[in-house]
Amino acid sequence: MGNNNEAEHDNPLNDELQQRKLLERRLVLKYDLLLLPFLSFMYLFSSLDRSTLGNAVLDNFEEDVGITPDQFNTCITIFYAGFLLFQVPSNILLKRFTARRWLPLLMMFWGLIACLHATVHGYTHLMILRFLLGVFESGFFPGVIFFLTLFYKKDEMATRIALFWGSSVIAHSFAGVLAYAILRLRGAHGMTGWQWLFIVEGVPTVVVAIIAWFYLPASPETWSRLSPEEQILAVERLEDRKQHATLGDLDASNRNQAFKAFTDWKVWMWMVMFFSGSVANTSISNFLPLIIKGLGYEDKLSANLMSAPPYLSAVVVMVGTAHSSDRFQERTFHAIAGASICIVGYALQLILTDKKSLYASVFIAVTGIFVINPIVNAWLTSNIAPEMKRSVAAAMAVSANNSAGLLGANIYRRSDAPRYIRGHSISLGFLCVFIIMALIQRTLLLRENCIREKICKEMQEEEGGFNEPEDEETQQESLTRRTRIGDEALDFRYRL
Q1: Which class for 490: exposed (0-12), middle (13-18), buried (19 or more C-beta within 10 A)?
Q2: What is the CATH classification number for the domain harbouring 110?
Q3: Tally of domains in the chain
Q4: Residues 450 and 335 both lie in one domain
Q5: 291-329 CB burial, b ≥16 within 10 A, e <16
Q6: Tens digit of pLDDT for each residue in 285-321?
Q7: Per the UniProt record, which residue ranges are transmembrane (predicted)?
Q8: How is the chain split among helix, strand and coil, in percent rounded to 5?
Q9: Domain of 277?
Q10: Given CB 3.0 to 4.6 Å as the disulfide criterion, which of 79, 91, 256, 317 pairs with 247?
């Protein structure tokens, strides 16, 4: 026994494998320390600039600009319209400009638009700026996800997407604290607090975009921060790196893959899940300060400040759940866990009446909301192939996610203050739909896996035995089965 252990220890191949694993861990750690935090920092400003309007409304924004509460809701809605319309063109331009150039350009433009919000003087002016903000922010998240696939393996993505998404949640928390401080500048240099808010949050966005232009690498093999040995390993560890596709790669050779995404029932199921799971997300992101104000925190500055703690809790829960999902390679019940936490929070909002309990229920709801999207995103992308089909399916899912903003921007009406029962009830209902759809999707995928296992077993038995010659129709069916590609291939197993 001892000799076997010594032989195993002295095996050069085993030593080389262990050394490679060590180098790979160091390489991924370098990505996690030098690349992912910077991209997350960029996305923090995206979420910060997007949510500023929700904080500004507590500083007499509507009165100063001359808009009604309903017009305010419409201005939030128009952001998602711009977001949806420009998403596909942005994916195409991503391929033309490359991610290292397109992402900073988008950030530069939305930062300038954010600054221009300080000059708003009417309803039409605000509508135009919100639409343009949606246009320039639309391509950033899918662009970053594509960019990350150049560096990380597929089974490393869910945790990284959650960490990246966490910056968005942190931004919402930071926005409340920042707004609390900046809105107190009202009157300084003849400007309102909300004008200062847009300027102070917009200018750093432009500065970070300029830094990103010079900092972001084109690819791991050309990144100067990696050693030559690390650059080679970065390419070798991603055997299918060149297969990652964007809509800019769409041509006659892969158009059929794109079409299959539109006709695949699984993609449409995930789209419904994304939509139903994002109604609560998009509404809370825009209206949490107003919701908290309705709980009895009448001081406008305090309402902004009290919106911060729930988001900090949400970051911890989201990242922890995503890490667990990656570790155990399980998606369904992790996503359902997040939705269930939300449901408890919203249900308590409908039942309870005292101020502290209501704030605690808001805390619970926000904590679970941001778990859903990273998990479902990883669930979808790991189950759709080949690459062009996956790219189109992901774009469809993101569109469904952002379409939820069109509804989420309109379920919290000022006429429902202070309890906002209608908004809470709608969010709760869609979360229930999400859980039902997730369970149905899991059941159908499991059933498909069992069917494929059975077919493969039958084919192996046929190949191993002496069967009667097949007729032409049977031969054609057998050939079709063997030539399936991507997630339609018989040896492809859906992850649950």
Answers
A1: middle
A2: 1.20.1250.20
A3: 2
A4: yes
A5: bbbbbebeebbebbbbbbbbbebbbebbbebbeebbeee
A6: 888 888 998 888 877 677 878 888 888 888 889 888 9
A7: 27-45, 71-90, 102-120, 126-151, 163-183, 195-216, 267-288, 308-325, 332-352, 358-380, 424-445
A8: 80, 0, 20
A9: 256-461+476-496
A10: 91
